[in-house]
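Bump. Still looking for chitinase structure tokens.
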Amino acid sequence: MFTKEDAEFVARHSKSSSQPISSRLGTLRGSRLADHRDVHLQPYCSSKTARRLPTATGEGQIECLDFSSSAFLPSSLDQTQDITHSIMAFANSTMFNSDAPAQFKPFEPVEIMRKRFGTGTKVMIAIGGWGDTSGFSEGAKDEESRKRYARNVADMINTLGFDGVDIDWEYPGGNGNDYKKIPDSQKTGEIETYPLFLQAIRQAIGPKKILSIAVPGKCTGMVAFTKEQGPKIWPSVDMVNIMSYDLMNRRDKATNHHTSVMDSLNTVKAYEEISLDPTKINLGFAYYAKWFMTDPNSDCHNRPLGCAVVALENSDGTDAGTSGVLTFEKSTMAPAPDNLKLPQTEPVGLIRGLNVQQVYAVASMAIVVVTRTSAKLAVCLIMVNAKNGKTDEQAGGQYFWDDQANLFWTWDTPAMIKRKSKDIVNGENLGGVMAWSLGEDTLNLEHLKAMQEGVKGVKCH
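Sorry for the wait, here they are.
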């Protein structure tokens, strides 16, 4: 089952050692993330905020983490020692619009969560997530609703002991999960009310609490993030977690990297062009692969990047079941049930008894083949030899096209994570990194280690 509790983490650096800046390392936050969370079959965790702080060597360290379930988090403090912020997700956006809201109950008490990380790690709560926008729309609409919403958020984080809040509105102004049901023309008012909404929350929680926002990595989601509105948004927030993943989603017509060095850099520059201070930015990373069914009549053999895909969503904007995600976490590689009935008309293979470490060592990823049975997805795993993975050195992305199943795969490797740290985090003097999600990493935390190495290898300016 999919759980609303998720986690992500961020790594940042600051220009001085006096007051650290926080950031988010990664949500599925979509996770947050466009459409991939629709097909998750297991609970997962994510880390949103980690920051690079100056050290004696002038290098950085992981500052932040965010997650929604403790089930798949690292078990050793040695693994999380460098993480400075933890963001638990999600509280529903509709909880804060009444005069007497019910008390939010996190999946684990804040004081217990603090024990999972090193001394000084900040613990935050994320509100919203992919597909959860109605509460934000209602709360932001006028001055009275904004004050009520902000007051309730402040009461919640103070009562439960959180150090801050992450607003994960996907997306103000439209083009979110409900874009076919509620056209953008009915959400234009949110472009003006979004910065006012953040201002109200900042005023209510005060300067000592942390306020972060998750923002789209795909330009089509940046409806409310314009040259006029940007300068009104940024002063209220401590950090901006750019979801520079899911850059290919089910609304696309041709294959592309869902995350790459080039596209991530272009996204960062788009925010810098609307006056966002780069030291407030946390670059997002994804701890999962995405897959898309390609058109069998397209020329994917000769052109796997840019070849046509089948319809990835239905006419009403819902998931067509022709795309999805696969994480690297241990539970993903659990043995398939012996009584699983598989259609004879689909190419299907199973991995039995392999843990993620073995899969990662042999294949660098696993492939999912989906079939429709009673409108449900039957998910099976098939191995893909590592030699089949292709590196797009120019764009800075990893991909594989399965010519037997007509599936295009796209994912981030540890090598690409390090390259992004060098070319983007250091090159653009960003505040840090974030990822969705910590609990979706491999058994040996290859992606987290790559982020830690990348952050520590970047000199603070």
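The chain has two domains: 6-287+412-456, 292-411.

Edit: fixed formatting.
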